[in-house]
Amino acid sequence: MAAPTQSRPGVAGGAASVRAAAKAGAHSRITLRIFRFNPDTDEKPVYREYTVDADPTDRVLDALNQVKWYEDGTLTYRRSCAHGICGSDAMRINGVNRLACKVLIRDVGNSVTIEPLMGFRVIKDMVVDMEPFFAQYRSVMPFLINDSPVPTDGRERRQTVSDREKFDDTTKCILCAACTTSCPSFWADDNFVGPAAIVNAHRFIFDSRDGSGDERLEILNDREGVWRCRTIFNCTEACPREIRITKAIGEVKQAILKGGAHNVTVRQPASAHAAG
Ligand code: SF4
Ligand code: FES
Questions:
Q1: Which CATH class is domain 130-146+164-263?
Q2: Is 131 helix (H, G, I), strand (E, B) or coil?
Q3: Which of 134, 172, 265, 276 is at a distance of 20 to 30 A from 178, taking alpha carbons?
Q4: CA 21 to centroid of ligand 1, rounded, Å
Q5: What residue ranges of the chain are covered by domains with CATH 1.10.1060.10?
Q6: What is the mean pLDDT of the chain?
């Protein structure tokens, strides 16, 4: 697979003029240049342009909905919650993996290019085949495993606050795939388990109540596991939940090298992106 490039966040044509319009409380005419491809009928993808009215505080998802509901009902993309929770509307917006429901028009400008996530088969327009992504997710056993007897008082398995903090960050994942599909290691090798699967493994490896951390570490101790990560940080920059993905991957690598999660000191930096 060729290794495409991903632009850095914040690169947006016309964003300043849209922000000025926002201050004036004005509508803007927004041009959406949208990737269109139906493999059943099209030989190759094309980009189609649509112009819509949008408030600077509208989300990109609102602009897409305008196209779909009033101009071209064949436009296809996933969305559900519209509030950054379900993770279904991850797509490339001006070259950057984002959730369409979390990105404001004023932050991307009045000329917006919309494309599907890279590295997955396109089913139609922005809808990609997520099954390989979920297969990698399932491969790390993303669920609590504890075969020990329940506590004698019949109540919950207790955990200290500091034990809980070790994996607090990685509980926030919404499985949007923005991280994995922004990773050059994944573009080059789609057998790489990918950052999202490692994040979800981390969530259980560092959970003091779980009994299968070593098994997960063995799964990830592989050339297609954590060692494929080259610490490029694209994943951390792409994550809409601001999970410190590169830090989590580093902690999993350390746990493998030190013989278990209990031998790793997990520190929580004050600033979310300070430690990647
Ligand atoms: S780690 Fe972040 S970017 Fe990756 S799947 Fe989870 S929420 Fe999405
Ligand atoms: S529609 Fe659910 S996260 Fe955007």
A1: mainly alpha
A2: helix
A3: 265
A4: 32
A5: 130-146+164-263
A6: 91
Residue 275 confidence (pLDDT) above 60:
no
Tokens 């493999």 belong to: 39
Q: pTM value? A: 0.88
d(CA 127, CA 116): 7
Give residue-wise pLDDT tens across range 161-198.
Answer: 999 999 999 999 999 999 999 999 999 999 999 999 99
Mutate which of 78, 83, 93 for ligand 2 pocket (most atoms within 8 A of beta carbon) = 83
> Any idea what DSSP says for residue 264?
S
Sign for the pseudo-dihedral over CA of 39, 5, 195, 177: negative
Strand partners, 49: 33
- Measure 100 CA to ligand 2 centroid, in angstroms: 7
Q: Which ligand is nearest to the CA of 238?
A: 1
Contact at 8 Å (CB) between 67 and 50?
yes
Into which CATH architecture does domain 28-128 fall?
Roll (3.10)
The ligand 1 site (C-beta within 6 Å) comprises: 87, 173-179, 195-196, 199, 238-241, 243, 245
